[in-house]
Amino acid sequence: MSKYLPLSEWLSRQTHDERRLGLAEIEAMLGSPLPRTARHANWWIGEAEKPQHRAWLDRGWRVQDFDQAAGTVTFHRIRAPRGVQPPVMKDASEEAARRAHFQTNLGAAALVGAGLALAAGLGVLAGKALGRRQG
What we know:
Low-confidence stretches: none
Radius of gyration: 31 Å
Number of strands: 3
């Protein structure tokens, strides 16, 4: 079990796409102090080369900012966990679905309109043909 599992699990339960935590909050969550090197940005920033990076990267988060003076870390969601869709993505997908529905209906209306125009044109031609026969 990773020492950073409690942080990983906490991040997985978050519904917002950005979270800022103080180092003391993280230590309380972990139940033990962070290493001294965690007081420096390079401990937080990285691409899965260290166990602590896996804690947030595996859950779809990255460290957006480390404020050494304030002792805070800002995590930002890079992908939604399975079964969770951030509101921005949900709104975008609903808008895309509305547009697709509109375009489909617009296409159907165009086909119906073209069919009616064709029928009307054929009716005019038929009427002219009948008029010539009678005349």
